[in-house]
Each structure stands twice: as C-alpha cells, then as structure tokens.
Amino acid sequence: MPAEPCGRISAQPDLWVNRTVTDLVRTARAAYVSDDARERYERVVNGIARTIKQCQLAADKGQSTERDFAVRYPEFLEYVRVLAMSNQADRELGFEVSDGVYFGETSRHTTIPDFLLTPDFLRSVSRWESLSKAKALLREINAGRTAADQLLFFSYTSRHLGTPDNPRSFRRLLVVVPGNEAQQVPEKWVQFGIPNPRAPASVRNVSVVAVLPGKDQTANVYFKDYYRTYRRNGSIQIMGRWELGEGDDNCVECHKSGVLPIFPVKGSVSADEQPLVAAVNERFLGYGPARFEKYMDVSKFGPGLGSARPGKSAAEKFNTESCTTCHHAKGLGPLNWPMDSTLISSFVKSGRMPESSQLRPLERAQLYRQLVQDYFAIDDDRPGILKAWLLGRLR
Predict the structure, then answer these.
(1) pLDDT at residue number 155
(2) Average confidence (pLDDT) over 184-203
(3) Can you give the pTM of this predicted structure?
(4) Contact 16, 8 (CB under 8 A)
(5) Burial class, 275, CB count within 10 angstroms (exposed 0-12 / middle 13-18 / buried 19+)
(6) Which position among 72, 121, 144, 274 has the lowest Cβ density within 10 Å, counted as fewest Cβ atoms?
(7) Are residues 246 and 161 part of one domain?
C-alpha cells in the first residue's frame, strides 16, 4: 500500500481508516488461508505503517476529539505497529525486542538439560528404531529422582504440524522436566522430532517451551528451537536454530496459550503411556494464563475467534461464542490474528474444540467456516470481529 498524501488523510480520517482496515483484514484472511498470500499481506502492513509514520498519525493530538486521530484509533495504531515489527528481518519471533536480544536475555530459561544432551541419548532419540533405548535411559534417570521430580515422557504422532525443518515429520518424543518455583527454575517441555521408521536421521528439530510462574497466578512462557547436526563421525551437535543462521518462526502465532496441549493421532501412543498424555495436559491446564513477560503484550492483538460479533444474526446455526469460554485474556488466550490455520482447523474439525461438542464431521467443517467468517468479515454494515475492533466499535 503506497503512502497517501497526509492532507487527504487529515481531511477524511474515517474514510481512510475504514478503507485501510478493510484492506488489512482482507489480506490477513488470505494469508491465513494460504502462505502464498503472505507476501502481499506483509506489503500492506508495511505500507500502512509507513503512512502512519510519515503522517505522524500516532502523534496526532488535535484540539478536539474529532481531530485526535491517536485517541480515536488506538487499537488500529498499536496493532499495525506490532504487526509491522514482526516483519523486520531481526524480529522473526514477533517480540518487542530483536531476536538476538530475546535469546540473550532468556537463554537461562530455555537451555536443554544436560542429561538430554549426552551422546548416547542423542543417538538413541534420533532414530525411530532406537527410541525404546532413549526411553530406557530416561527411566534410569527417573530411578534417581524423587516422586515430585519425575520426568514425564512419551512418544506420539502429532495430528497438527510437522517440525520446522521437516513439514512431513509428525513423530515426537516429549519430555516434561519439572521446575522449581522457589529457585526460579522453569518447567520445560522439551520435544524431539523423530524420523519415520526406516528413515535416516533426517529430522533435526528440538524445541523447548519453558514455563515459569508469574504474578497473579499467570505463567511467563519462553521459547527456543534447536537443530541437531549429524556429523560423519557419528557425533551429534546441537545448537540454537537462530545461532545456526537458519531463521526462526513467530512464537505467539501458534502458542497463544503458551504451551500447547497434546492431542496425538489415535493409536500413536502406547497403552502404558496413555496416562502420561493426560498428566501433561493436566499440567498445562494448571499453569494459568500465559504471559510473555516484557517481550509481548498479547492484548494488543485484540479479541479472537468466537468473540461477540456486532449484529450477529440469531439465525446462525452455531454458537461460536463457546470458544471464548476458555480462549480469553484471563484463560487460554484469544485466538487472534496472526494465527496458524492448520492448528486451529485441526482442533475444530477433529472435534477437540469446542470441548464436549457433539457435532458430526460436516457440522464441524461448517462451524470452522463460520468462525473464520465471523472473525475476518469486511462488510461495512456488519463487520467481522477483527475489523470492528480495529475501528473501535467493540469498546
């Protein structure tokens, strides 16, 4: 979106904002549906941010409420700022600081425990055929730990996403390492990508999500992806993905709730490990609302899927607002843009969300379409949740 003459915007600010928000939401929806549309969406965001800066709209303090752009459109201005920030080359994580600063300041929370870095364990966890040996090593570690300090671990197949380095790899080994709140040691969810049976050690990713209790029964959450490098001599080196110069992903795009609950592909977890899946999901529910410390205030992204839409028709088939029973600022976090369509589609269409819903597959697909439409609609007379919020109509 090219910069517009500032005088024209000043003369008709409401017209410009409405047209700009419409373009922003339209391209955001296209990017949600397809990664191929991401480049155009980012151009639109950067163009809006450039116009705001050139015309000093964020500092427009007029003599009356009618003229005071910054007071009238605070949601829009701050939203564009944080979206544009994540488009910068050194802020792929989407935080208020550069990726280098974030990793430098949070590395004490996201290191992989030494007992998961031994050569024997790394070799065992890098092939499906030797995964049983990796689990045996973890059981040996548990034998020397107290009941409260036991590792929780199981292998499974993800129904949602492949690993960052291999989108066709869905097998995982999850190890939950208990923390120590008194010593400010976070609980860590360490997840190893596992190659398919009879495949070479081609999956590199190891992810860490660290959870540390915060204020007011919230939880501060920290992220880091690591990659394994397999040497010809049989050794395995592990380093941060960012430190290796291989980029990173926007953390909060997928992790609105901080840690993600585990819903494995049916039959992919052995019978003796099934209770552990329930145990780690109970742990997730006990953390409290996720916060990202000083690095991101997620309230700046506004309401999410299932929020009340202005002018919602009583004739619509589904009560989509049941989503916000859990997904709100004081719960599991709103599901707002930017967000991952694969993750959300899978949760809804698989019947995992909304909880306890008794819908047939066709009805779940219809519910998903309605959720997306309610959120991204750009009608002037009946805007969707995102457009209405950006225009200040949900205050």
Answers:
(1) 98
(2) 92
(3) 0.90
(4) yes
(5) exposed
(6) 144
(7) yes
Q: Are 103 and 224 in contact (CB under 8 A)?
A: yes
Residue ranges with strand state E in the chain: 152-157, 171-177, 187-194, 205-213, 219-230, 236-240, 290-291
Last residue of a domain, one of 291, 313, 342: 291
Same domain, 116 and 261: yes
**End-of-domain residue from the set 251, 269, 291:** 291
Mean pLDDT value across the chain:
90
On whether both 262 and 306 belong to a single domain, the answer is no
Which residue from 223, 171, 233, 179 is spatially nearest to 202, judged by alpha carbons? 171
Residue in 220, 223, 219 with CA at minimum distance from that of residue 209: 223
Domains held by the chain: number: 3
| pLDDT tens-digit series, residues 255-294 | 888 898 898 999 999 999 999 999 999 999 899 899 999 9
* Residue labelled with tokens 């592909």: 265
Classify residue 258: in a domain, yes or no.
Answer: yes
393 in any annotated domain? no
Q: Give the pair of three-digit tokens for residue 51.
A: 């116009």
Domain assignment of residue 69, given as a range: 1-90
Beta bridge partner(s), residue 227? 205, 239
Residues 6+ apart with CB under 8 A from 76: 17, 21, 390, 391, 392
Greatest CA separation found in the chain?
73
Q: What is the pLDDT of residues 243-256, one digit of tens each?
A: 999 988 888 888 88
| 30-60 pLDDT, tens digit each | 999 999 999 999 999 999 999 999 999 988 6
The residues with which 247 forms a beta bridge, in sequence order, are: none
